[in-house]
Amino acid sequence: MIDDSLVQPGDAVHPGKPVIVDRYGPGARINHWITATSLILLALSGLALFHPSLFFLTALFGGGQVTRTIHPWIGVVLFISFFVFFFQLWRANLWVRNDFVWLSRFTDIIKQNEDRLPELGKYNAGQKFIFWSMTGLILVLIVSGIGIWDQYFGEATAIETKRYAMLVHAIAAVLIICVFILHVYAGIWTRGTLRAMTRGSVTGGWAWRHHRKWLRALASQRKAGPAE
Amino acid sequence: MMDSPRTAISNPPVQPMESNLTERDLVRRSATSSLPPPERQLTPVAKLIDVSKCIGCKACQSACVEWNDTDPAVGENVGYYTNPNDLTPDMFTLMRFTEWVNPETDNLEWLIRKDGCMHCADPGCLKACPAPGAIVQYSNGIVDFVHENCIGCGYCVKGCPFNIPRISKVDHKAYKCTLCSDRVAVGQGPACAKACPTKAIVFGTKEDMKKHAEERITDLKSRGYKNAGLYDPPGVNGTHVMYVLHHNDKPHIYADLPDNPHISRVVETWKGVTKYVGLAFMGLAAAGSVLHGVIGKPNRVSEEDEEHAEKLVERNGRGAG
Amino acid sequence: MDPLETETSRFWENHGEYNQVDPKSIQTEVFQLPTTCFAEEEGALVNSGRWLQWHWPGGSPPGEAKHDTWIMGQIFTRMRELYRKEGGAFPDPILNLSWDYKEPEEPDPEELARELNGRALTDLTDPTDATKIVVPAGKQVLNFSQLRDDGTTMCACWVYSGCFNEAGNNMARRDNNDPGDTGAYLNWTFAWPLNRRTLYNRASCDLNGKPWDPSRKIIEWDGAKWSGFDVPDIAPNAKPQDVGPFIMNQEGASRLFTRGLMRDGPFPVHYEPFETPVANPLNPKIRGNPTTRVFQSDVAQLGTSDEFPYAATSYRLTEHFHFWTKHNRVNAALQPEFFVEISEELAKEKGVAPGGWVRVWSKRGSVKAKAVVTKRIRPLICDGKPVHVVGIPLHWGFVGATKKGWGPNSLSPFLGDANTDTPEFKAFLVNIESTSAPGAVA
What we know:
Largest sheet of chain B: 4 strands, mixed
Strand order of the largest sheet of chain B: 9-2-11-10
Largest sheet of chain C: 6 strands, mixed
Distance between the termini of chain B: 89 Å
Strand content of chain C: 15-25%
Order of helices and strands of chain B: EEHEEHEEHEEHHEHEEHHH
CATH architecture of the largest domain in chain B: 2-Layer Sandwich
Radius of gyration of chain B: 28 Å
CATH architecture of one domain in chain C: Beta Barrel
CATH class of the largest domain in chain B: Alpha Beta
Order of helices and strands of chain C: EEHHHEEEEEEEEHEHEHEEEEEE
Number of helices of chain C: 6
CATH topology of the largest domain in chain B: Alpha-Beta Plaits
Number of strands of chain C: 18
Oligomer: heterotrimer
């Protein structure tokens, strides 16, 4: 199995009260927020075209024609942005034995019995689930999306293919919105997480509580690191 | 206000007339959940195209271009009499030529079919359209595109069982035969029917057109076309553009006219179950999260956790902490 | 003078492969004077039913276009003035041409119509009673029966006489009543000659002057004269037993053979076209019709089936009218490009795909076209051998809204029917091969 004590370039621990642990550099954060913003815009513009009761959302974009024009372009931005992010994070998200354990004890997580859980690396199974489902769904969305991007690719596929592409795109979009909701909620419910993506760092306590193995690895590395 | 016209061969009104096709005559409106029923039921109209009488002169194509004032491009001949070689946003109707050798008689039959919107009673384009009011259906059967509401998404193309709507690359809106709704609205018939020199295209009430078709079919059968019949496909609940075909047992020989057209099951699913279930899923996810957030306890980092972390860091990661 | 661009007026202009000329070496100067189209003119539209239906303009001439009559009036009056001032070799026909129009520089269509009808130049008196004036001087004649050969009447076209007499413009009548339901519509417009709708209509009655089909009576003999729903094409009191319907023949009956007026009579004979893939089975030594007039230089341009094995014919399409509608963007969209039609068998032999480019050439010229491969043309078996047919529709050229193209006229021979000189455009010999697209035109 893969050693999940991997730390990513840029991860570092700084003693103090409280201990500060660097989790995401500025590039990663910008990348994440571009991805997040584009996903939100895609969800809004997509929902406007998905259900008549939500068509009013086209007003946010300047009308129906603009919404329809701009949605696939934002999709391209999402795809590129997400995959830049993907190539930075994929190693740390590879599945390990501990992840099965974590999943089997999901109720303990909800009840906050974290002591019953194994020590975790940088990402827990839940986060890995988010990562891989986003990856898969974004791939499905970009492929099905290009299939129905009639303005430039209309001639490339038959109508029957487009019908399936529409259905697949709609289902994948619904799923990715659900995954998005789960991801946002988890980030909020687990207090102290948001600052990882805004300030780039978390507290030592947060790391101790949620990703102890990662913290240990960073702390032992510190000896070899530059003096403070 | 008057009812639907009964014939294509009427002269233009000499006084300005009020249109008899208004918002109050709609039976269906795209992406609209609660449409009030129409104020009155107009007599359903139909355009009947008798393929056996068509000579492929394309007067109907010219009349349609002239009436709708479109600007079809001068393309090139890719080896056929069919020109342009497909429907376009500027050519709402098209004579499609097929050279078919009848296996029973070994005769060559030059089949010429006027392609265009069938004005289905259960329109796939309207079902698929996400833009409220971009596609409407009047109580006389005409299915019309309302361009000011069209967003150019092309869902109508996927919804249509006959591959008819075309999206303009100029204004990004969908175009198709309107059954001359603007002419019908003032008591006239469609331009194509008026121009047709052989009266292969006739127009009137659907009932009259079916009667006329019966006469034509009897005539064709008496001349040896034993499978002559009326193409009014039940899979879309019937259409307001119908064909008299010499060989109604195999519509596909007429340039791939679908034998049993119906709205694709994929489209029905996409516009049916997926919408409800999808909204439900997302709604549940959102509601569930909110509920959990309000009722449940947040997962906070404790003071103890911070102390553990500080100790660990001091010992450079060694020890149990 | 043309309302539309033509290849003839642009013959001097280089259009690449479509018209390979060097303008610098051409010494003819072309002046293009744009005229009106029918819908911008007032005048008579003549149809094959011999009706002269008068119509009025539906629009004004666009741009610099002018009515033909204005252009002619301008040219004539200026030339006449020049001849008056400068004289010339023989100015009489120009100076003495009667040109009595209200506005000499733009004769009015109605004035011209009145001239077509004809009028009396002096008082016309009754031949039997000199005191009785039948037509006063300056008045229109009733019809050609009042025209004389002594210079006292004028008429621009005797068969049209009656079209615009003192009753008015008979061509402009629009009474659509049809008593008897014969389709004659005697009071709708004027038909030449004499408003007669069916020529030789006495043939509709038997030897006793009774209609063969009483339900479709046109005229009838009532014992004293002929009358009915049409103008009788026979002297009104010619007895039916004495006078036959075909009044242009002395015996009043039609003939199964010619007595004269035909170069290759008296009986019809089979002749092959001048260019033919098979010899004349009745007269193998004869080429074409021996009484046809052909210039020797054109005989030199006749090919044989050794070099040109395929039979070509030319025809028209419903989407276009001659060379007029290639200028109309709607018609152009319906049939945009020059094509030839060949059978599936010939296409296979030559390796031609539908929509592929082919070169078709004869002893006289060469064209390139798109190929339409069709089941509607099948190889003919002539004298035991297959003869392939190449169908060549006309309608395209190097000017117009359509794609540039050629026409069958580049290939057809310069000879015609022995009697009428109708050109032999429907049967000649060509060869065909697959080729690449014509080069781009600068």
